[in-house]
Every structure is written in C-alpha cells, then in structure tokens.
Amino acid sequence: MAKKLMKGCEAIGEAAVQAGCRLFFGYPITPQNEIPEYLSARLPQVGGTFVQAESEVAASNMLYGASGAGCRCLTSSSSPGISLMMEGVSYIAASELPVVIVNIMRGGPGLGGILPSQSDYLQATKGGGHGDYRCLVLAPSTVQEAADLVMDAFDLADKYRNPVLVLGDGLIGQMMEPVEFKRSTRLEDLPAKSWATTGCKGRERNIINSLYLDPEVLEAHNWKLVRKYEEMARTECRHEFWSPHGDADVLFVAYGSVARIAKTAIDALAEKGVKAALFRPITLFPFPGDALEKAAARVKHVLVSELSTGQMLEDVRFHLGKHRPVSFYGRVGGVIMTPDELVAEALKLAGKAG
Amino acid sequence: MPTVLVEKDRCKGCGLCVSACPSHVLAMSSEINARGYFFPLVEHPDDCTGCRYCVLVCPDLAIQVENKGKTTAPPEALTEKPMHYCPGCTHGVIHRLVAEAIDGLGVRERTVGIAPVGCSVLAYEYFNVDMHEASHGRAAAVATGIKRARPDLIVFAYQGDGDLASIGMAETIHAANRGEKITVIFVNNAIYGMTGGQMAPTTMPGQVASTCPLGRDVTLAGYPIRMVELLKELKTPAYLTRVSVHDPKAIMQARAAIKKAFQHQVNGTCYSFVEVLSTCPTGWGLQPHEACDWLRDNMMPYYPLGEFKTPEKGVVKETER
Ligand SMILES: Cc1ncc(C[n+]2csc(CCOP(=O)(O)OP(=O)(O)O)c2C)c(N)n1
User: How far apart are CA A96 and CA A99, in angstroms?
Assistant: First the structure.
C-alpha cells in the first residue's frame, strides 16, 4: 500500500480496520476525537459497527461484551476517560479477554488540560484499575509506528487473551505524517476463539466470568495471570537503542514524543562535542529492563525525560539499581520541552554547561 | 389421576407450594431433608386437580406434576444445579420463566445471558446457555457489546433493582434509547438483597431497610423509581411491561410476558424490558408467603402491572392496560 499523509488519530483508526477490528465503542474527549470520528465513517464501509457510548464506563463494558463474543474490538479515549474505563478493563483482564485500548494522554490530574502529556504511565503500566493485573502497553513515537503498533496490539491481545493499551500522547494523535499500512488482515484468517460466548450449539456452554468465591481458586487464577505477564516479559519486550555518534557519555531514556525531541537534542549535542544516545522503550509493560541495563552499562550519565513529574523514572531506577545515579527532566501540564532544554540538561551532566 | 412428585432434597422448605395449592393437597413435613429443611408431603393425593400451581410457585424446581402421562419437566435452558437463593426468594421462579421462554422459542443454542452483580450473580451457574458475568450495573452495556458483535445471537440481561435502576441507570436508559435488540429482565424486589438489605432505588416509602432503619424517608431519599414508566417516555420503540410472581396467576402472566419479550428479539423488532415484581423474604424480614402478600398489598398499588409500551401501539394508555 502506498504512503498517505494522515493524522495520528486517523492512522490509528485505519490500522485497527486493517487489523480486522470491526467494532468500536467510545465517548468523545479531546485530543483523540478523530479516532471515533474516523471510525464512525469507516467501520460501516467494511460492515463494522460504531457505537457512541453514553460514557467511558459503558464503552469499556461494551468492549467487555464484544470481546467476550469473540470479535476484535477497540476503544479509545484520553486520560480522564481512561480513568472511567478502569472498571471494564479490570474485568476484561480478569476474564482474560483480548481488547485494544488507545489512550491519547493529556495533562492531568483532574480535568487537567487538553495538551499532550505522559502522566498516565503509572496507571497504564501498573494495572490501573482494581486487582492484580497488567495490560500490555505499547508506546509509539511516530504516526507510522502508531499504525504498526495498533496492528500488533490486536495480535498480542489475541495471543495472550489480555488487554493491550496503546499509549500515545496528544502530539502523536494530532500530528500528520506519512503512513503506510503494511498488512491487511482478512477476518477469515483470524484464529478461532473456542472460549467465546457465541451460543452453545454443538459444544459445552461457555462462561465469561471474573468471580471466584473460593479464595484458593482465586489465588490460583491470580498466579496464572502472573505467569502470563512473565511470559510477556520473556518474549515481548521491545525497545529502540539509537546511538548515531558512537560511544555515548549521556544516555537519554525517553518514550513516545519525547524520544523524538531527544533525538534532535542528541544531534545538537554531537556538534557541541558531547556524545549522547537514546534508549526508547517501545513496550512500557513489559518494560525492557535488561536491555536498558546493558545500554546504561556503557555510559556515564543516564537522563530520563518525560512529559510527567517522573513516572517511567521509577521503572528506570528500579532496573538500574539504587547505586546508579539517574537524572530526570520533565515538563508537565501540556508544556513540551524543547530540544534546547534537553541539550542544556545533558551539558550540565557532562560538566560542559556554559 | 394427577400425581405430585416432590424431590425433597432440592426443597428449601419455603412452603409456597402449600399456600398455593387450592385443594390443600400438600402439608409441610415434621422431619427435615438432607439440607436441613422441612419439605412438603403429599397429604391428600386424591384431592389433586393437576393445576400445577405448586410447580409454578416452587422457586427450587423441587416439584413436578404427572398428569395424563405427561410430566412437567424442568426447562432444558436451566442446569440441574440447585440454586443458592434464600428459601422463598422468587429469583428461582423468574429463572424458570426465562428458561421456558428460551426453550419455547427454540433459541437455547444461540442465546447469551448476562448475569448481574446482586443475588443473581451466580445466574451463570443456572442458565444452561452461554453466559457472561457483568460488573455491577453494566449488564446492558455488556449486552450491547455482544449483540452488536453478533446480531444473530439472542442476548438477555438479568438484573436486580440496585444493579439496573441505581448504578446501571445510565446504561439501562441508553441501551433502551438506542433500541438495542436485547431483552432485559428486571427483578424488582425493592431492596439490595445481596449486600444485606440496604435501601434500593425501588424501596417503598416508609419501608425499613438496613440503611433506612426508620423507613424510607421520601424527603431525603426521594420516591421509589418506576423504571417502566421512566423508559416509556423514550421515543424509541420498545416492548415494556411489568409483571409479578407473587401468586400462580401472576406467574402465568409473567411467563407470557417474558416469552413475548424474547419473541420481539427473535423477530428483531425492538428492545424489550420486563420488570418483574419479586420478593425478598430475608431482606424484608417476612415469611415467604407473607412476602408474597406484602408485594401484592404494598408494591402492586405503586408499581401497576401491565404492558406500558409495545412496538405496535406505542405507549399504552392506563385505561387500556
Ligand atoms: C461497583 C460495585 N459497587 C458495589 C458493589 C456491591 N454490591 C453487590 S450486589 C449489590 C446490590 C445488589 O442489589 P440488587 O441489584 O437490588 O439485586 P438483589 O441482590 O436484590 O437481587 C451491591 C451494592 C459491587 N459489587 N460493585
């Protein structure tokens, strides 16, 4: 397929269609309205269904039903709406159903603002709703990658029977870039779902449930989920290591849009005689901790930068250990750091500040 | 001659069959069954007319009647698992009516039921169809998801009054307003049964509950919500009806209404909603037969029975009900 210039949100919508998603349930919220808007027009063209739900609580529970019935389905929202979806997501994770959720994050807490942010990292990666569960979390940094990861998200959701969260920020959602849809899934090629509630003709009846009144059974279920997350950690970790100027002194750790800003800063730093590199987690859960450890072993300074007050920072510190100093630079509330700000931070660390 | 067959170890001793029998055929035992309950004995078998009222009112499917070579058999759409409901709770009766409708329409193998959070949370153990357990109040949203994903399936939500009319009010109204082709069975027992008898949105004025120990004060808690009346104001076509299960006649009417509701879904006509006035002897602090009388005397005047809206006629006037 040829490249097209598309807005991030629209590319996400089209990628879902190409991945065989035929159902979308959602509620409007800025800055992701272009996803439901796009799909409200696009899904009917492919025999799909778009439902504007009465709330994000309802949307997440519609998703719960539709995925239970064995169909690929999507919802999207932005931070305050994602908070409301946590009820459904907890039930979906507990019942081991495959769904894809897109969060185009905006500044918080509370109503916050409508500009880009990465302040839902902890909610996304540590469960988010009640109970011991995790979503698999993918973080794109370009429109192309957003499209690719949305397609992968549907496969991963089916593979693990687990919710997959695509965590973008307002920048990724709103900017336009060339994008190519690299594959197109035919519905008939999708794996059969023997567990789905599709009517019990010719088989034992299926039950989708998250209630376990026997504590020992519930405990076993919890550990079963943990084994699934461990399997994800063994096989699904993804990252990008970008080191175009040779052995670096400073390692930026950033994901999503911030990683792009860091790349510009890294080139600018090279001109000032400071070698820097980027470690960009693509899966935020599972976190590519081993790869980070290797990348960090070769540098003097580690600088985490986020559009938050330091959320991924906790994971970086956890993986690098308390004896390894890790610096942090964050902007929040919808304010985005410039490459110059990151250059200045790196120069300070390298002892070359002017 | 008709024969009454009592499966005594399914019985929870509620005695509803004894009160329902017009010919006084049954009497409670003085010994207990394997579960520790008294159970009905067929004291005067010769007086049985084969009316099957005992079968209709038994919430535990513990009674069958054999007449002219035919036995009332439990519906295929129910599993054999004994239900966990308190003695005399009418959830069991409503389960059977729903199952009979599913069997009657021949749709068991393409039906998906939604169990709510409430006393009927374990409904997925009892309905012999594919089942999906929803979170508290969201059954209509879950049903929407399933029905939109697979319009060929017959999807029903089974919900209590706290579940549907309080926490799930938004989901209920919007599913009705969108005209989702689902069937909602709304069990109104005027109380939160599962959590121990707290006030529900449907609790009667002055009715004592554990969170209104002096009785529902309408100046603070408002008046009980009449769901059917609320839903009938929506312009979207629907089948909306209210029935009761406090006595055999009412149960027969409820059976017909529930079947009609499912029929509308099978035909693809409209959203269908059946409010079933139900008892909660434990929560109300009454004997099972007293609870049936209390429902009749207190709930029915406030929650009138009948069809409130049909896809053919639209809103049905009070005088036509
Ligand atoms: C989000 C949430 N809030 C509260 C509860 C606790 N809870 C369980 S059942 C119930 C009330 C159910 O009452 P009702 O729907 O009237 O059904 P009944 O038990 O009377 O059949 C409540 C409040 C819950 N499980 N989840």
Answer: 9
Q: How far apart are CA A332 and CA A334, in angstroms?
A: 5
pTM listed for this prediction: 0.97
- Kindly report the protein residue whose alpha carbon is nearest to atom 9 of ligand 1: B118
Residue A273, by phi and psi: left (phi above 0), alpha (psi -120 to 50) or beta? left
Q: What are phi and psi of A217, to 5 degrees?
A: -70, -40
**Cβ proximity of B44 and B24 under 8 Å:** yes
Q: B120: Cβ below 6 Å to ligand 1?
A: yes
Protein residue with least CA distance to atom 23, ligand 1: B195
Closest partner residue to B148 (CB to CB) among A66, A200, A211 is A66
CATH of domain A240-350: 3.40.50.920
Q: What is the pLDDT along chain A (354 residues), one digit of tens a residue?
A: 689 999 999 999 999 999 999 999 999 999 999 999 999 999 999 999 999 999 999 999 999 999 999 999 999 999 999 999 999 999 999 999 999 999 999 999 999 999 999 999 999 999 999 999 999 999 999 999 999 999 999 999 999 999 999 999 999 999 999 999 999 999 999 999 999 999 999 999 999 999 999 999 999 999 999 999 999 999 999 999 999 999 999 999 999 999 999 999 999 999 999 999 999 999 999 999 999 999 999 999 999 999 999 999 999 999 999 899 999 999 999 999 999 999 999 999 999 876
What are the start and end residues of each CATH 3.40.50.920 domain in chain A? 240-350
- Tens of pLDDT, residues B186-234: 999 999 999 999 999 999 999 999 999 999 999 999 999 999 999 999 9
Task: Please tell me the CATH superfamily of domain A4-235, with its number.
Answer: Thiamin diphosphate (ThDP)-binding fold, Pyr/PP domains (3.40.50.970)
- Domains in chain B and their CATH numbers? 3-71 (3.30.70.20), 91-320 (3.40.50.970)
- For an interface test with A, give the residue of B102, B103, B111, B133 to mutate (most A CBs within 10 A): B133
B-chain CB neighbours of A71 within 8 Å are: 149-150
Going by alpha carbons, the residue nearest to atom 3 of ligand 1 is B136
In order of A18, A115, B60, B161, B307, the CA distances from B295 in angstroms are: 55, 55, 20, 15, 19
| Residue ranges, CATH 3.40.50.970, chain A | 4-235
CB-CB neighbours of A184 under 10 Å: 11
Smallest Cβ–Cβ distance between B142 and the set A54, A65, A71 belongs to A65
C-beta separation of A209 from B142 below 8 A: no
**Interchain contact B80–A (C-beta under 8 A):** no
